[in-house]
Amino acid sequence: AERHSIVVIGGGAAGLSVASQLLLKLGTTADVAIVEPSEWHYYQPGWTLVGGGIMKAEETRKKMSSFMPKGATWIKAAVSAIDPDQNSLSLADGRQVGYDFLVVAPGLQIDFCCVKGLKEAVGHDGVSSIYDYEHCQATWEDVRAFKGGTAVFTQPKSGIKCGGAPQKIMWLAEDYWSRAAVRKDVTVKFCTGLGSMFAVPKYREALERLVRERGVDASFGHELVEVDGARKVATFEKADGSRVSLEYDLLHVVPRMGAPAFIKASPLACKATGFVEVDKQSLQHVAYPNVFACGDVASTPNSKTAAAVTAQAPVVVHNLIRQMEGKRGKAQYDGYASCPILTRRGELLLAEFKYGGVLAETFHAPPLLDQGKPQALFYYMKTIVFPFAYWNFMLHGRWFGTRTFFEPRYTE
Ligand code: FAD
Ligand code: UQ1
Questions:
Q1: Where is the FAD/NAD(P)-binding domain (predicted)?
Q2: Catalytic residue among 136, 191, 294, 339
Q3: Separation of 359 CA from ligand 2 center, angstroms?
Q4: Level-2 CATH architecture, domain 112-257
């Protein structure tokens, strides 16, 4: 069977970052393989911009082949099972691949099926989602065509990637309707299974102020359980088990999501959550020291974002190389994540925090910018700097987010 020194599962933000950084450190003769079935690589943070009419869907994807790092072997297939006791993977096409070291980075699986009627409804008759390449353009078509009525935006209580995106698209839509002078005829509802607008108090307060100022009708503890696309009715379940139904004219849904099925079924998964059970600082598997996880699939209690990947990838790379030398690496991930919350066209609130919701703001020192306030500079970072840095540096192993210029590299 085929065998490689290092195998990376997934060629997404995390898989390509780690593979590129490994090849930069070890040289292009290192034996690194990436298992990735997709023809395309998606810049998912752009999907919010597509839904808001700021970017085109085609700009958010590029051919996977142009991002496979030089020296890496691309195994163009999906992993269907992992056997960490045999250091071996099964592929969907029946092949087996062996490894000495494994980096698990297949991201999350989006489940449109958990909510009754959603799979049938999404993509037409005013129902859309920025959580899917195929449906994010429909969000903008719906928002642009809307002339009045009830617009409902949902968020599930279970963990999602980019926890701020469900409200970002609402703020962009609300702003568009204000500019188009139809806002007075629109009722904007935000229905979330969670208990507040954001987990970190500083940003929560700022966002709850915006809810009041901009006349958003927010309902907490409201979990979407059913969509009747024909009658345009969305049904929510409350914590006490009771149900409420709402008639909508426009519905933006955020589906539930979780670890991919083949991860949940593997010995690498945390039994309770299904995510790959790694140490939250070293990102090394708790039972298999030759296995690491990076990105959304890791069990680490951070906010799942590409920004978090910029901080995780160098930790995985350092600790993996030390492990290859038979030593324990000392690099530690501090839980850094950032959520750039678009509050309207031209304005963005840049939330940055680490484990425990402790602030980790890049621009905090006076007289720099107040990150508790939406700022124009952050908007241009999100719409211009981040996409450019992602495609041209991050996927090539040369972008470390806020630490790109300031943070010393791990040397020991
Ligand atoms: P992904 O990038 O999803 O990549 C996973 C890869 O694994 C894919 O290429 C997939 O094809 C592959 N794969 C899947 N299954 C298998 C398999 N069985 N075998 C092999 N390969 C497989 N982050 C931010 O930092 N800022 C933002 O503003 C932001 N906004 C977002 C808005 C939206 C609407 C969404 C959806 C996400 C947003 N994110 C944002 C989050 C960000 O996109 C993710 O956190 C990031 O892509 C995670 O990287 P990853 O490599 O773990 O997963
Ligand atoms: C970031 O580095 C990054 O990567 C390109 C993003 O794009 C997805 C981000 O959204 C954020 C917030 C960062 C963090 C970087 C800085 C400079 C705050």
A1: 5-307
A2: 339
A3: 16
A4: 3-Layer(bba) Sandwich (3.50)
